[in-house]
Amino acid sequence: MKPAPFAYVRPATLDDAVAELAATDGDGKVLAGGQSLVPVLAMRLGRPGTLVDINAVAGLDGLERRDGALRIGATVRQRHVERSSAAAAVPLLGLALPFVGHRELRSRGTVCGSLAHADPGAELPAVALCLGAALEVTGPRGRRTVRAADFFQGAMTTAVGPDEILTAVQFPAAGPGEGFGFAELARRHGDFALAGVVTRVRSRDGAVAEAVLSGFGVSDRPVTRDVTELVRAAAGEADVETALRPGTEELAREMVDTAGDAHGSQGYRRRLFAVLAARELARAHRRATESPS
Ligand SMILES: Cc1cc2nc3c(=O)[nH]c(=O)nc-3n(C[C@H](O)[C@H](O)[C@H](O)COP(=O)(O)OP(=O)(O)OC[C@H]3O[C@@H](n4cnc5c(N)ncnc54)[C@H](O)[C@@H]3O)c2cc1C
C-alpha cells in the first residue's frame, strides 16, 4: 500500500520545527529515522496530515559526555552510538543496541525515535528505565526534562505531547562498582523479543548497594523493579543464579502481564522472563563485584 497524502516540511532550526509542529494542531508527526513511522504510513495505520522532518535541524546531532552522562541528540542514529567510543561510558547501550532490529535499520533509526515510539517490545526504553535516564522534551512552552520512570505511559504512548519534540536523552554513565546484564529471546535475530531483561547491580565494599531489574516485551510498556533485597539475599550463596530463581519467578508473575499469542503463551513468557532475569542479575552482580568500587 501507499501512504495517504501528507504535507512534508524540513525545518533547519529547532524553533521552526516546534512552530511547524504546533501549526498542525495535533495532526503532525515528527519524522526522525522513519524506520517505524514509514511502515505505519505505508500500511495506513496512521494518517498524519504533516510530517515534520527533523533531520536538518541544527544542533540535534550531538553525542557527548556531559555531567556524568552520555547525551544523545534526537537525530543521532542507533548505529552511530553502537560504533562510538563515547558509548563505552554506558555499557548497557553496547549490550542492547545489536538486538535493535537489523544493522541496516539501525543505520537510519535514531535512539530518541525508539524512545519516542515506545514499542512495548523495544530494547532501548527498558535500558532508559533501568538506568534512570533523563529525557529532554521541547515544545511551544519551552524545554522540560522528564525522568524515564514518568516517560513511558502505555503502548506507543509517552509523556511527549503532540506539539513537542524529544530533543535529547541523557543516559547516566556507569559508576564504580556497577555491573550490567542484558538478554532477550526472539524467534529470529532482529525480531521484537518474546521477552527481554535489562539488569543493573551496584556494589560497595563488596556488598550489594543497589539492584534493578527491567523488562520489555512483557507488558504494554517497559517495566522495572528495585530488586536490591533479592540480590543481596542471594549474593552470599555459592550459586547466585539458582538462589535468585524463586524471587524472579515471583517477579515474573507480577511483571509479565502481556497475554499469550501465537508465538508464546503468557505462562511461557513468565518462565522465560524468570530464567533470563535470574541469569542476568547474577551476571550483573558478578560484573559489579569484579568492577573496582
Ligand atoms: C523490520 C523491523 C524490525 C525492527 N525491530 C526492532 C527491534 O527489534 N527493536 C526495536 O526497538 N525496534 C525495532 N524496529 C524499529 C526501529 O528500531 C526504529 O528505528 C525505531 O523504533 C524508531 O526510530 P526512528 O528514528 O526510525 O523513528 P521514526 O520511525 O522516524 O518515528 C517513530 C515514531 O516516533 C516519533 N518520533 C521519532 N522521533 C521523535 C522525536 N525526536 N520527538 C518526538 N517524536 C518522535 C515519530 O513521530 C513516530 O511516531 C524495527 C523496525 C523494523 C522495520
UniProtKB/TrEMBL annotation:
Keyword Oxidoreductase appears in the UniProt entry: yes
SMART domains (alphabetical): CO_deh_flav_C
GO molecular function: FAD binding; oxidoreductase activity
Record bears the keyword Oxidoreductase: yes
Entry keywords, A to Z: FAD, Flavoprotein, Oxidoreductase
Record InterPro entries: CO_DH_flav_C, CO_DH_flav_C_dom_sf, Diverse_Substr_Oxidored, FAD-bd_PCMH, FAD-bd_PCMH-like_sf, FAD-bd_PCMH_sub1, FAD-bd_PCMH_sub2, Mopterin_DH_FAD-bd
Pfam families the UniProt entry points to: CO_deh_flav_C, FAD_binding_5
Coiled coil: none
Residue span(s) of domain FAD-binding PCMH-type: 1-176
Name used for this protein in its record: Carbon-monoxide dehydrogenase medium subunit
Higher taxonomy: Bacteria, Bacillati, Actinomycetota, Actinomycetes, Geodermatophilales
